[in-house]
Amino acid sequence: MATTRVTLRQLRAFEAVARLRSFSRAAEELHITQPAVSKQIRLLNDEIGLPLLEQIGKKVFLTQAGEELFSTCADWLETWGRFEQSIANLKGLKQGRLKIATVTTAKYFMPRVLGPFCAEYPGIDVAMEVVNRDRLLDRLARNQDDLYIMGVPPDGKDIESEPLISNDLVVLAPTSHPLAGRKKIPFRDLGLHRFLSREQGSGTRMTVERIFRENEVPFDVRMELGSNEAIKQAVAGGLGLAVLSRSTLYPGDGSELTVLDVEGFPIRRAWYAVRPKGKQLSVVAETFLTFLRDHVQMLAPRQ
């Protein structure tokens, strides 16, 4: 086997297909055509001398040889990527690829900092995955991204987290609600109302359930909804109250929604930048993290 003829392009194509289990998604991530991905895999198969992937219908499976290669090539590519970025940095350049994964609520503010960052470093290609908490934790466990942005870092000693900016939780009601306009509403009064909430496992849901439990007040969930926008619309429609991050609010929401003045609220939280413990950040990731630290005001919720 002429391993010296295996190219980085072939390895990148294989790693993307093996990780995503899809030729089309790999092509999209690599910004090339699907036939180009297939060609690189075919050339790699020829060099290895064994098939690496099997496609049955629309599903992609790794062969035993593919499993062996996949278990090592991700580390090779990450090491090489750091080397390329280090060389670019020594040349006074900032270029490369930055992969970020965020929980869905972070989509309300992350674009406001990514825009100026990309303008300052046009050579950096940014990919941002917006997923729910469970999927983000899975990506974190697999070390699939450079940085992870979330509101409630997981417990344990295997991660490093750095608070960036406040992520306050507030109680929302329709403007026509009987509690609207009242001052210093007792927390216990919330137990008399039904709530709209994100799914079990979301960071906001876990925090709210804990706060209600500590105050010995029932948290009566009338309906679970899959997005903050859906919750806001349901609140505006009079289906219940909700506890959401202030980050989700826009100036135009004030005509239909109001933030209740409830004792104990807002609940003070933070947005965190998270990564696996001991992870060596690439030059590009370090550059972005430094940019975040210096520009956190861009993340402040709209008033």
Helices and strands, with pairings:
Blueprint lengths: L7 H13 L2 H8 L3 H15 L4 E4 L2 E4 L1 H27 L5 E8 L6 H11 L3 E8 L1 H9 L5 E4 L8 E8 L2 E6 L19 E4 L5 H12 L5 E5 L3 H9 L4 E5 L11 E3 L10 E7 L6 H12 L9
Helix pairs in contact: 1-2, 1-3, 1-4, 2-3
Characterization of the model:
This protein is of the alpha/beta class and 303 residues long. The protein is 38% helix and 22% strand. Strand 1 and strand 2 form a beta hairpin. Helix 1 packs across helix 4. The termini are far apart. The mean pLDDT is 84.
If helices are DSSP runs of H or I spanning 4 or more residues, what is the number of helices?
A: 9
The arrangement of helices and strands along the chain is: HHHEEHEHEHEEEEHEHEEEH
Which range does the strand content fall in? 15-25%
Radius of gyration: 23 Å
Give me the CATH architecture of the largest domain, please: 3-Layer(aba) Sandwich
- Main sheet? 5 strands, mixed
Q: What's the structural domain tally? A: 3
What proportion of the residues is helical, as a percent range?
25-40%
Distance between the termini: 62 Å
CATH topology of the largest domain: D-Maltodextrin-Binding Protein, domain 2
Give the CATH superfamily of the largest domain. Answer: Periplasmic binding protein-like II
Which whole number gives the mean pLDDT? 84
Strand order in the largest sheet? 4-3-5-12-6
In terms of per-residue confidence, which ranges show pLDDT below 50 for 5 or more consecutive residues?
none
- What global shape is seen? elongated
Count every beta strand, where a strand is a DSSP E run of 2 or more residues.
Answer: 12
The helix/strand class is: alpha/beta
Briefly, what CATH class of the largest domain? Alpha Beta
